[in-house]
Amino acid sequence: MKFGCIAAAVAAMVAASPACAESPSGPANPAQGAALRAGAPPVSDGTVKIGLLLDLTGPFSGISGAGSAEAARMAIEDFGSTVLGRPIELVVADHHDDPNLAGSIARDWFDAQQVDAVLDVSSSSAALIVQAIARNRDKIVVLSSAGAERLTNEACSPTSIEYVFDTYAVAHTVGRAVVDHGGDTWFFVTADYSFGYDLERDTAAVVVASGGKVLGHARHPLAAPDLSSYLRLAQQSEAKVVGLADAGGDMIGAVRNAAKLGMSKAGQTIAALAAVIDDVDTLGLPTAQGMMLGEPFYWDMTDATRAWSRRFFERLHKMPNSLQAGVYSATLHYLQAVRTAGTDATGPVMEAMRNAPIDDVFTQHGHIREDGVMIHDMRLFQVKSPAESRYAWDYLDPVATIPGEQAFQPLDQSRCPLVKR
Known about the structure:
Blueprint: H1 30-37, E1 48-54, H2 65-79, E2 82-83, E3 86-94, H3 99-111, E4 117-121, H4 124-136, E5 140-143, E6 160-162, H5 167-180, E7 185-191, H6 194-209, E8 213-220, H7 228-237, E9 241-245, H8 248-260, E10 269-272, H9 277-283, H10 285-288, E11 292-295, H11 303-316, H12 322-341, H13 346-355, E12 367-368, E13 374-375, E14 378-383, E15 396-402, H14 404-407
Parallel strand pairs: 1-3, 1-4, 4-5, 5-6, 7-8, 7-9, 9-10
Antiparallel strand pairs: 2-3, 11-14, 12-13, 14-15
Helix pairs in contact: 2-12, 3-4, 5-6, 12-13
């Protein structure tokens, strides 16, 4: 069968590029800018300061980390390094996968360091806390590498945007397609934190709604040293599909263990629900071949994606994934909104971000809904075999494009209190 393809900590939360339709450094619309600027303060403290709260040393460092920081720097450079005649400053911190540390850094950034917006937070557990802190301080948070669905449902915020993916979109991109191709029995190997719970729940719901069955699950701790025992349970279930509801180092370890156990050769398909191209590169095609994954961006799709990705490669010697391309796009979109609004004040900038379409190397015809979800197409890919790969980083074979309105949760099903009923 050839198809294959984040919190428990919120209770403590708050006290306290060139490919764009308009050049990033082009002139703003004076009438629109004046309208949004009315009554708004000028650029605060003379600098537009952007923050990234990332995992730079832990299990998610490879899929966001330094690559996301470099993508933001590229966006700032492409924009011209200034906005409204003021410098743009980027600050980056490692939260070490500690939600409480992420919250402490965010409070300091907002209260003492004059950070205007946080444009990514690695891990959903940390993102849930930072998003709530930002809401209480009227600060913007845009998320590319945190995908828990509750971020734009029960925990939604008028100052936050879910930019790249959420668990609902991944489930509806990968889960349904795999069932449609005969993978109608599933066993989940799930990371024991909010992102994993949401990803398993959403995908399981899609599997059942599509006529499949869920035979069981096994939940493992973050950064588990060995996942063999969990995968043996999946093997014993005889499920046709093993859904990996984890990410980063955990997912890589699971795929390697599955290969050692001969699961794919025995006919079980590995669906890595949160895999990105870096994971495939780390695993190698002999180990990852046949695996299915869902991503909104792939470097080798168009002339524009190839040109931007090669610039990224020149800096980091690897191709970008969708999370990193999302940070690039989100940074450009935020800076364009500051320029349009004529201020870095949160209200006018959020209005400008919601009003403007998103057309760049990351996506075309994207738009931000009232629940904070940025709607864009998702894509289903299958990892190529070594024989099918023609050149370096030629790893993914496109299977299907799922329109954004079908991939993401319908607005009438949203549990976000901000949605008008």
